[in-house]
Every structure is written in structure tokens, then in C-alpha cells.
Design brief:
By secondary structure, this protein is of the alpha/beta class. The chain contains 9 helices and 12 strands. The strands form 3 sheets. It has an 8-stranded parallel beta sheet with strand order 4-1-7-12-11-8-9-10, sandwiched between helices. A two-stranded antiparallel ribbon has the order 2-3. Helix 1 runs parallel beside helix 9.
Length: about 325
């Protein structure tokens, strides 16, 4: 019987969503919606070892972390449009995009409020680890791993996973690892962490030429490991790479690890392109649990609504070492 528990931080305010996103095929209806989080929460609620609490982080501390990650003029830009847009969107006439990437994500009314709540949730989950939890989960939205110091994209405005990393570092937990298992490469996370000597970053993702961000990427240093699949990987191929990244994080001496969790690696995800089954998350969870270090899980993508409950349940089961019922 597992004696572990999973401390789940819930977001205080969830309303608001990008109405569209630009994909390689053109404008597509936005799929980053509140219902995603509700489906994931159902899966986590099936685990008796899950404990739920609402994110409680002061605005002052939230701002202190955000200002260590994002440029002040970028935060001011988000804050301005947060209030200026009433029932309409600012489509793509803004300068805050990663180099070589076309704007793809509109701003909407309340965008900064919603994104701040997502970051607050990730910081709250990291604080659970600071306070002694072995496993915490930030059930936050919108995702964050495409957000850089002064850019947004791919539904991401503020970088939640890096906010969690910085929270751990600020508390004296170091070095810290960040493993990103989302279908898409976390260009924002990689850029933000490139200059931090006490952070190791690893990513497994679809080819960045055929998938977002649609450009070549290179690790900034030997503290970064990128695994790119130009073909849909088998479960065995994917799990082998997860094991490799966990080993690298251990070799780096990581005292804790943040995981950017993307459920968009599974078959039929509308923003994905691979054929992995939801059950793979049980094995991913088992591999991560074997790292024997505190884990802070931060929600990124995953857009196939009718599969998210199962993904989350399987992932939690693997992390917690649950017996199948």
C-alpha cells in the first residue's frame, strides 16, 4: 500500500480562454478551455491519496517571482490589454513573440488575471514541496511553457513551470530539474533557464520543424537535453527517453524536479500527432517516482477532453504506486 500523497493545488479563478489559435493549417477554434481542468481534476479525484487545496500565494510574492522571470514592459503590456479588451480580442498586432515565430495566440479580456492565477497555482504547488511534500500537482491554466521573458505564444502568457522552478530555488532547494513531456517543445522554458547554472532542463517533443514552434532549436549548454521525434514514437521509445532524462537529472544532482505535464502526446489529441495510449502515463509516473526526489507537476497541454480524466488517473496511479483496482 502506498503511503505517499499527491498534493493538488487548484486554481482560484479559471474563466477565460483564447477564442482561436493559428496552426500550420490556419485559424483553429481555441481548445484551451476551463473544461480541460475539470476533466483532469476528475481523474485525480479517483485517487484516494490526492489532497486538494486552493492556491494561496500573496500577490506580493507572485509579483516578486514573475518579475524574476518576465520583463516589466511585457507584464505591463499584458496588464493593459487585460482591462482594455471588453468582449473582444487583440488578434496578432503585438511585438511580443519569440524570434522567428509568427504570432498565433490572441489576447482576450481578463487574460492577465487568468494567467496570474495559473502562475499562482504553480508557485503554490512548488511551496508544497518546500514544505515537505514529495508530490505536488499544479492544476493550472492556461499552460505556460511557450512563454519567454518578453513573449507569448501557443496559448501561453506567463511561464508557470519556470515560476515553480524559481520558487524552489528561492527557498534554497537547488539544483532543480525541469523535465518537459508535452508534445510541443517548451521554447519559453528553455530560453528562460538557459542562463541559470543551478537548473537542468530536459525535453521530449515532436520535431520543432513540423510542430510548434516551427523552427530549429539547439540546447544552450550541457545543462539542456532535447529529444526530438520526427516520427510518432512507440511507447517503448518514449519511455526510454523519459528514463534517460530522469537519469541525467540525477547525474546533475537535482534536489527536486518540476515536470511540465502535457497530455497532448496521446492518440487523437487535436493539437498533437502521436499515437500513444493514455495508459502510458502510468508508466511515465512510475519512472518519475523512481527518481526518489520531490516532484512538482505543472499542467501544460492536453486537449482531447474525453481522455483527460484517464490520463490524469493513470499518471497519478503511476506516481503513487497504486494497485490497479
Amino acid at each position: 500500500m502506498s503511503h505517499l500523497s499527491l498534493e493538488v493545488s487548484l486554481q482560484r479563478e479559471m474563466q477565460g480562454a483564447s477564442p482561436i489559435i493559428v496552426t500550420s493549417e490556419g485559424n483553429t477554434a481555441g481548445r484551451e478551455i476551463e473544461e480541460r481542468s475539470q476533466c483532469i481534476m476528475k481523474g485525480l479525484k479517483r485517487l484516494p491519496q490526492s489532497h486538494f487545496s486552493t492556491a494561496e500565494v500573496s500577490d506580493r510574492y507572485l509579483d516578486s517571482i514573475l518579475q524574476k522571470i518576465h520583463h516589466q514592459d511585457y507584464l505591463a503590456f499584458l496588464a493593459h490589454w487585460n482591462r482594455a479588451l471588453v468582449g473582444e480580442e487583440l488578434l496578432f498586432e503585438y511585438p511580443y513573440v519569440d524570434q522567428g515565430i509568427q504570432p498565433d495566440t490572441p489576447l482576450f479580456e481578463g487574460v492577465y488575471d487568468l494567467s496570474r492565477e495559473g502562475a499562482r497555482t504553480a508557485i503554490s504547488a512548488a511551496q508544497q514541496v518546500v514544505n515537505g511534500a514529495s508530490l505536488s500537482y499544479a492544476l493550472c491554466r492556461p499552460p505556460g511553457h511557450h512563454a519567454g521573458s518578453a513573449w507569448l505564444g501557443g496559448y501561453c502568457f506567463l511561464n508557470n513551470a519556470v515560476a515553480a522552478v524559481v520558487t524552489l530555488l528561492e527557498s534554497g532547494i537547488k539544483p532543480v530539474g525541469l523535465i518537459d513531456i508535452d508534445f510541443h517543445f517548451g521554447n519559453g522554458s528553455a530560453a528562460l533557464l538557459a542562463s541559470r547554472p543551478d537548473v537542468w532542463f530536459g525535453s521530449i517533443h515532436s520535431s520543432t520543424i513540423v510542430s510548434y514552434p516551427y523552427k530549429e532549436v539547439q540546447p544552450a549548454s550541457d545543462r539542456q537535453t532535447f529529444t526530438s521525434f520526427s516520427h510518432p514514437p512507440s511507447s517503448e521509445e518514449f519511455l526510454t527517453e523519459v528514463e534517460r532524462l530522469v537519469k541525467k537529472s540525477l547525474d546533475f544532482g537535482c534536489a527536486a524536479m518540476v515536470v511540465s505535464v502535457g497530455y497532448d502526446i496521446i492518440i487523437n489529441d487535436p493539437h498533437g500527432g502521436w499515437h500513444l495510449p493514455p495508459s502510458i502515463f502510468e508508466e511515465i509516473g512510475q519512472i518519475l517516482a523512481q527518481a526518489s526526489m520531490p516532484l512538482c507537476l505543472v499542467q501544460e497541454g492536453g486537449y482531447l477532453l474525453n481522455a483527460l480524466e484517464e490520463c490524469a488517473y493513470k499518471f497519478g496511479s503511476g506516481l503513487l504506486g497504486c494497485e490497479e483496482k
